[in-house]
Amino acid sequence: MFAVMRKFRQMLAGDRRGVTALEYGLLAAIIGGVVITGAGLLGNSLGTTFNTIGAAMTAAS
Fold it and tell me: Distance (Å, rounded) from C-alpha 28 to C-alpha 20?
């Protein structure tokens, strides 16, 4: 029984490809979340700026 468990543990310890793929997947998800959040904040800021400019141009004419 212990020999089977030891062999299984050695088999898992030798293969690191799945762990590396998981790490890259997590990094991609985090970076994607940051990009989406930043784009949303920038979009709101630009919308406010253009509305302010539009209101000023309307008032000036």
Answer: 12
Rounded CA-CA distance 43/31 in Å is 18
What does R_g of the chain's alpha carbons equal in angstroms?
A: 26
pLDDT of residue 61: 77
Rounded Cα gap, residues 7 and 27, in angstroms: 32
Q: What are phi and psi of 16, to 5 degrees?
A: -110, 5
| pTM of the entire predicted model | 0.55
Per-residue tokens: 12: 């898992």
